[in-house]
Amino acid sequence: MQESLDFISSLPCEILQQIISLIPLKEAVRTSILSTAWRSLWSPFQVELDIDSSHITSDEASKKLMQAMAMFLKSRTSPELLKFCLSIPEKEKGLVFFAIKGVEKELCLDFSGGKQITSNFDLILEPSCPIETLSFSSLKTLHLRSVNHLGKNLVSTLFSNCQLLESLKLEKCTGLQSIDIKANNCLQSFIVIDCPNMVSITISAPSLKSFWYRGVLPQIQLKTSPQLVDVILNLREGLGQNEFDCEDVLSLLASLIDIEILTISGWLLEWLCTAGVIFGRLEFQFSKLKELCWIGSLMDRPKRDSLACFLNIVPFLEKLFVNIDQSYSSIPCPFFHHYWHEPHLWMDYATVKSNASQVEHLKLFKLIGFTNEEDQLLLIDILLNKATNLNSMIVTSLDNQSWRVSKIPYSQLKQTSRCYSKQVGISSPNKECYFGLREEDSNGLCPANGQCL
């Protein structure tokens, strides 16, 4: 059989450049792995600037750098890659970063190309009067990667000139300890991923609709975000070097009562229950929450029971996803010196089941990472009893095979098995019934915010 030829890669560079100019930046960058021809499109043009990066906020230095950035953004070539080199007097290496411009008013600044110096720093981002006419009004999306203490002034100055910025992402900023954002009415999306030294995040953004976070648990304060509807708290790295403050976490949850979609790490709910929090007695509920995604490395008894307790304050929940990902780190729960906790927490299963609240509005439950373990089956049993209007219950195994779950009395087991040849029967842990697992295509049943970072 004749091998297929790669005709597209043999096209002239001008045509290849035109092709990638028609697709979003994230997809365009991926073309660099296709072949040498595509990779050559991403050869950076180097820009040398004689600016002391430690004084980037001075009027003269800021004006010079912002002019260079403005010329870069106004050029007609998209996407385009530039390498900026800023000198630092009396030092061998200055600030080096790559700037990648996308076709859809996107800009990515990557500081990982230079020498990585671990030094703790804070980042304050707030709008201010732009430098002359350099308002960067065309910029809608800003992605910052590996920002260090040398680049923080540049980032702050650039942000203050992005008057119409709608989306901001911070990723892999080692040394970054705190973020303080005071945004205008345009910022709608804020994402923070893998900043291992993070201690605190303060956000004031009147039009913010989504806040996605992945990393260690910091102190998070949402001061002015009345339009927030979608939140991810993927705390897969645990506490890091921070301390667990129950009041801070409850204050954060209280600021999220109007959201509609929430992803949260299971260990955080377990720790709150262990520390003495009784969800049913809190002064707030998530009355607008329609979709909840629980994530963790395993489903054991404390995590199962704490999730059941948390459901007491989500009375109108319609979709529940439980994502068990064994690649996540296991976060062991410490011992808290309290004599009170959820009334049925860690009691026998019959007591837990009888005290669990009805989830009358739940229509869909999907368990991802199903391994047929007892605590998973007990959670299924609770929901089958308490979710009176449940339309669909799906479990997906580690090899991505899915089954629809139904409750089958022992008396109907043989009859049901004859009707569905591909159905598997699993006895419930309490031996009251069987769970019927019938093969199901559930690829379209996913959390609204994708893969939970």
Automatic annotation (TrEMBL):
Gene3D superfamilies: 1.20.1280.50, Ribonuclease Inhibitor
Residue span(s) of domain At1g61320/AtMIF1 LRR: 134-406
UniProt superkingdom: Eukaryota
InterPro entries cross-referenced by the UniProt entry: At1g61320/At1g61330-like, F-box-like_dom_sf, F-box_AtFBL13-like, F-box_dom, LRR_At1g61320_AtMIF1, LRR_dom_sf
Domain F-box: 8-43
PANTHER family xref list: F-BOX DOMAIN-CONTAINING PROTEIN, OS02G0105600 PROTEIN
Protein name, per record: Uncharacterized protein
